[in-house]
Amino acid sequence: MTLSARIARSPATPAVLSLVLVLWGIGTPSFWRDESVSVMAATMSFDELWRLLDDIDAVHALYYLMLRPFAAFGGEFAVRLPSALAVAGATFGVAAIGRRLATPQVGLLAGLVYALLPMISRYGQEARSYALVSAVAVAATWVLLGERRSRYAWYGLLVALLGWFHLYALLLLPAHAAVVVRRRGETVPWLASLAGAGVLLAPLAVIASGQREEQLFWLKVPGLPELGQLGVDIAGGDAAWTSPLLPALFLATLIALVLLGIWHGTRLRRRGVLTAGGRRQDAEAGGHREDLTDHREDLTGHREGLTAGGRREGPVAGEGPGRPSLAGVAVPWAVLPVVLSLLISQIHPVYSPRYVLFAVPGLALLAGVGLAALRRTPATWAALTALAVLAASAHLAVRGPANRPDDLRTLAAELSAQERPGDAVLYVPERFRLFVVVYGEPYRRLSALGPGSDRVWLVSRRIRGPEWEENPRLKELKRDFRKAGQTRISGAVRITLYTRRIPSDA
Fold this sequence. Notes:
alpha+beta; 2 domains; two-stranded antiparallel sheet; 23 helices; 10 strands; 58% helix; transferase
């Protein structure tokens, strides 16, 4: 095979594409309130960081520490760069897993699908831990699928790292269990590695259990609409669906490829298939008959091998002794974390689409099988091109300047243009101070609300009627001040100017 063909088949090819896609426009969208907390935590003193972690945010401790060198440079590009690099790493891993379990073509296609998903670009451009969680989940799965018994030491460390980045990502473990129980002699070392990971995670779990209410107060018991939101987010999020035709077609095409991948992978596992090494295994007989096939590859296709039934099948690996099938890995990976999160959330809400981002690689692997199952190279690449074209509008929407839950940059600019010397500020609730600090210069020029304040900027969420009487500061604001001008709203953050009814110097 030529050098150019090897490069085209390498897992690095989709990884580089994903990095280019994520870096495109990475600094354009404003930081939103969660990212503001990340920047603040990564730039505060260690004493202040310790107090923050001890109070509410211990689950993100490792991420904040990792982010510090990047946050020192300042700006959206630098702070979001770790997430972009994590997406590239996860894409490489998805392609490598597809290559290990099936063929180079399947790996390449799965990696390309993963890179093209708008949801992946969205969280690759966010200064939060979700992209890194996905990268570690992919790495842990890759190590699990190895053959050497010594790999379980590394696997245990990766599971611990996964939990330290996000505890709820441990919902990946039931999917791994579904793989391990079908591999002879693997259960005991797998459980031992989890025990070691549990020791490393125990301190975080103890602290985080006491912070659950503060962390997850915003989550509700999910139903079908919340499950549907995962599909919306995969296709680009709410901003992409303002014109729903293209995102809907993209999502429908992706689902069709995933279903084709499940069907094709299951059928080949039953009937005996061509493995990645070019040998034929008869899965029905459980034997080890091997017929060497022509395994020459080129840039665009992988020559199909004969199945036990004599018919040609697409290039998908089956489940031979000691090796799981791609479908046997990808289906639990894509399904179990989402289902378990929804079930747990009926009692203790923990479900959010971004919390199960680490399950998306399973979908990409299945879609890669579905593309390979089209058998003819032109059809495969035509389907992939269609997927890319349908995703284009969503990628543009994801990179819009205001395409975040809050546009804190614009709010800060408007405040800077209208504030006056001597203006005061009131945060309701007080934690909203953390949400706006990332563009904090206009806010730092404001003083605390006091007896001499004639103009007050209220930075708040939506305040309902009873709160004006229950909160002493709001009660004072309502009694002594009147609203002046329009409320500026961006997502959950509102900024409103109030002026004193009777000036303090009157």
